[in-house]
Amino acid sequence: MAQMTHHAPHRTSAAVREFSPAEVEAHLLAQDATVLDVRTLEQVAEQGWIAGAVHVPADVLDAQADPSRGGHHPRLDPQQLTIVVPSDGGGARTNEAVETLMRLGYREVARLAGGFDAWEQAGYPVAGHAPWHPEVSSR
User: Fold this and answer.
1) CA pair distance 36, 9, nearest whole angstrom
2) How far is CA 132 from CA 61, 62, 85, 125, 135, in A?
3) Quick one: pLDDT at residue 131?
């Protein structure tokens, strides 16, 4: 008998909350949310990443965010707040990522307002590339 997967009713990405870099940092410190970076591998290699974030490029998110599939990323939990980190203020890739998570039944999905650029400009920790925090090293 085939396994049935239950997905939540379709919601729209237009209603998704946005968090400031300070709010995202507070969630990272409290460890009560997953910060999900959906930028490309090239962007992450060039710009660095938010320390503590999970990186899953948007083009493979469907497979890695679905708990019913073998390629599910172990740090992605549909029951936990998931904050999507776009490369900019939030373009088509970000909207697709948000809609993918909603379709897969993620309980609460939000965005980092202003994307990775806003995080970096606010001076929060960046791994791999650290113009604002020279003491941060790649892990």
Assistant:
1) 22
2) 29, 33, 18, 8, 9
3) 42
- Contact between 60 and 40 under an 8 Å Cβ cutoff? The reply is no
Task: List, in order, residues 6 or more apart from 128 with CB less than 8 Å away.
Answer: 44, 45, 48, 49, 138
Is 22 part of any domain?
yes
CATH code for position 116? 3.40.250.10
Q: Which residues of the chain have pLDDT under 70?
A: 1-14, 87-90, 129-139
Q: How far apart are CA 80 and CA 32, in angstroms?
A: 7
Does residue 64 sit within a domain?
yes
Residue 1 covered by a domain: no
The answer to whether the pTM exceeds 0.90 is: no
Asked whether residue 35 is assigned to any structural domain, the reply reads yes
Domain count, the chain: 1
Q: What is the mean pLDDT of the chain?
A: 82
pLDDT of 128: 84
For the chain, state the CA radius of gyration.
Answer: 15
110 — phi, psi (to 5°)?
-140, 175
Q: Which of helix, strand or coil describes residue 99?
A: helix
Domain carrying residue 78? 15-127
